[in-house]
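thought: fold this chain, then report.
action: predict
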Amino acid sequence: MKLSRRRFNAGAAALLPAAAWGTARAQTFPSQDLHFVCGFAAGSGADVIVRFFAEKIRQNAKRNGIVENRVGALGNIATEYTARSKPDGYTILVTGGSALAATQNMMKHPGFDVGEVLKPIGTINRQPVMIAVRKDAPWKDLKELAAAMKQKGDKASYATANSSARVVGAMFKQKAGLDALEVQYRTGADYLNDLAAGNVDYGIPDNVMAVAQEKAGRLRVLGVSTAQRMQAAPNYPTITEQGYDVKLSGWFAAFVAAGTPAPIVAQLNQWLNEAVNSPEGKKFLNDFASDPWVHSPEEAEALFLQEIKAWAEYVTIAKIEKQG
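observation:
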């Protein structure tokens, strides 16, 4: 049965007029611990971002911030958990807005319209997906990689672990004319050993994992998926400037259940924006080759709805078969 916004948010909020209930709640918010939900495993790139901003918001809210990793179904378990929570601002999903839009379009039966059941608090950053190879690989750029993969034909392979990686991988494969096999992993960390051993030829990591592993000497980034080079990491060439028309930007945001009172959403937005714009927040994001990006709740919601529509086209272009 399809889950509606009404089913998600039925409960205490229905006992009072929305404006009165929201005003009353906002005056005492927060009066308990905040729960930050991550749809990916502890130690993943997403988890690192969630924990950083959970701590920054906790400091402003002067309440404990508890991180919950609810892993599975392309992040849908965490999404549904948040959407089913009370619309009171205490359960906050920190994840890729682009990833949520992707998952909505990659599932045969998502069970809900993510644009209806979640309310964006605000955005956090813009970030690329990257194409990377093991540190000792002989290929120095994407043209060299593509030439080598063409020689391998259908024996070539690449690793993915999230929806954005799947689309970028498929687009690069098409633009470069490759027959490479996509190998899907649960998390980016799961394919590092296979990449290092040459069991897969290249990977499509998120920016957090890619930069960290490059600094550790385990892989080398060959290109980023954004239309222009990142301000935070201008040394990374784009995929497009190397001759392959692949443009896709990821972005992180924070979400609460739809129906959360506007005054509470506004307060959370203020704390989130302060965290992103702080010197520590900017440095944290820049260290992982991402640019800070802030919006009001209204701007974030409009962006989110546009992204959902865009991902319907991305999935078609990349010829990704819907799952579930």
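thought: worth noting. The longest strand covers residues 118-128.
final: tokens above.
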